Amino acid sequence: MSAVLATPPATSKSQEEPTIDGFHLVIDALKLNDIDTIFGLPGIPITDLTRMAQAEGIRVISFRHEQHAGNAAAAAGFLTQKPGICLTVSAPGFLNGLTALANATTNCFPMILISGSSEREIVDLQQGDYEEMDQLAIAKPLCKAAFRVLHAQDIGVGIARAIRSAVSGRPGGVYLDLPAKLFSQTMDAAAGRKSLIRVVDPAPRQIPAPDAVNRALDLLRGAKKPLILLGKGAAYAQADADIRALVEKTGIPYLPMSMAKGLLPDTHAQSAAAARSFVLQEADVVMLVGARLNWLLSHGKGKTWGGPKQFIQVDIAPTEIDSNVAIAAPVIGDIGSCVSALLAGLGSGWAKPPAEWTGAIAERKDKNQSKMVATLAARPSPMNFHSALSVIRDAVKARPDAIVVNEGANTLDFARSIVDMYEPRKRLDVGTWGIMGIGMGFAVAAAVVTGKPVIAIEGDSAFGFSGMEVETICRYNLPVCVIVFNNNGVYGGTDVNASGTSDVAPTVFVKNARYDKLMEAFGGVGVHATTAEELQAALGEAVASGRPTLINAVIDESAGTESGRITSLNPSLAKKK
Ligand code: FYN
Ligand code: ADP
Prior knowledge:
Layout: E1 19-21, H1 22-32, E2 37-40, H2 47-55, E3 59-62, H3 66-80, E4 84-88, H4 91-107, E5 111-117, H5 120-124, H6 135-139, E6 145-148, H7 155-167, E7 173-179, H8 180-184, E8 186-188, H9 189-195, H10 210-221, E9 226-230, H11 232-236, H12 240-250, E10 254-256, H13 276-282, E11 285-289, E12 310-315, E13 329-332, H14 335-346, H15 355-377, H16 385-398, E14 403-407, H17 410-418, E15 427-429, H18 439-450, E16 454-459, H19 460-466, H20 470-475, E17 480-486, H21 516-521, E18 525-529, H22 532-545, E19 549-554, H23 571-576
Parallel strand pairs: 2-3, 2-4, 4-5, 5-7, 6-7, 9-10, 9-11, 11-12, 12-13, 14-15, 14-16, 16-17, 17-19, 18-19
Antiparallel strand pairs: 1-8
Helix pairs in contact: 1-7, 3-4, 3-18, 10-14, 12-14, 16-17, 16-22
The structure holds ligand FYN and adenosine-5'-diphosphate (ADP).
């Protein structure tokens, strides 16, 4: 329990009675629930909270912008199944954190955004307080749950509710509003201690109904061309051994969504990743495990999906079912429980899928993979995405425990298929929204939470959103190697201003920028790499030394395609097609 701050007034009957204030109740409530790290940005009214939390043994990681602290909290939540905490000041700081909170909710990552706020009396009468804003009302539609605590004795309940809301059922973002006055409120220390809640079983197992499991198994048994599709919900669930056993015992080919890569090694014989289009079109029964039929899967219909098929969907959220197309066999429960029930139901006489199906997939895979090998072997000058990524592919193969963070357009799309992952939860990327700006926040969280090397593969545009956080990486001396794929602009650097004025085109950046100098400015290692050999040497050194490093990888400015592989979402390109 933490130190007692305030001395009771002389008139109090309990002169000797120790008291505790709101600051310490918040800290103690977090500690009681094993929360050991806060990602945030100090300022009025939460500066003292960050100081006191650090003094009380919580690791406080301070950022340069709240959005990145929020992204770090979200990634920490995904990696640990404990809600990541992001702490911000009021109004503008809160709003900066809100993008990350909404993104966490969209991606089903558990996090809690805790923001200081102005006093209710003034906010509600709109009397113009310092950073006045009705934060609770604004946060509500953008997160899974939102709470405000007005009295010190309710801090325990507020934090317990926030934790439960974040991690139970479908995980997500929670907003916790703590008005400035709350922090200095005091109460009797013993009563304060008693008011805190240690949350018991915060994410209770949800066992699937046996008939739902049997329905799914019957459908799978009758399939001629079955496919398992693993999503980041499956990665989050930490049911790695059972998921692998289910795939291997059924013998069914599987496709990982990007953040499910590594749940089974990408080199696994049953991976159909290199025959993606083929299996999506041809499969007759598709079992989704922790993946949604959203835009990333073309909503389960249309050209991508070819002929008719039936879906099994394993998910914790019953309302996800039938969201886009009919689901023939929903299996509702937590993935750990669902997968173990499916495994148990397989029995001993399970027949593996027909050889025509697995053989046809292997053929496609071989074709695509041989093409890939040839492309990766080339050493053009300047580097293109493939030659640079082939170096990173080898580095990750050598250090399969390293965490890859990946954002950009072409940099994202090429890295997804080129850089194989070998272990679960080692790939963090732009997720459900395809959001740019997660890079440095995710990288910091990955390094802080796991202590493993982090390799952040960044488009130059994507890096710009969170680039100032390289100071944070240096300040905490984190083992992060940022590789900026520098092709002078968004998608590439060759766009021309059609108006004839002196401005460059909207997608073009300063040519030949030296992002490496940014890392050097804060004491880290900066490397300007113009060849695959230079990139390889610098990356090897960075991973071995663990020193904060930024490699400015010079990429052919004409190598990218506009919008990467999602050109269909770009109206002018879609029209041209
Ligand atoms: C995949 N492929 C491979 C391999 N892995 N070939 C050889 N070897 C290996 N290891 C093949 C695969 O079969 C596909 O070919 C192709 O490479 C691309 O694979 P990918 O990346 O899995 O598939 P695709 O169609 O690009 O994926 C669809 C998607 C993905 C929607 C899931 O594009 C995605 O996650 N997009 C997110 C994009 C995003 O968020 N962008 C940010 C916006 S940036 P075929 O089978 O021949 O098709 C702002 O502009
Ligand atoms: P991807 O982008 O990889 O396809 P999504 O984020 O779209 O993945 O889908 C993840 C799904 O996983 C969500 O529908 C979510 O409800 C579900 N999910 C998350 N955690 C669990 C869990 N522990 N058990 C079951 N389902 C889960």
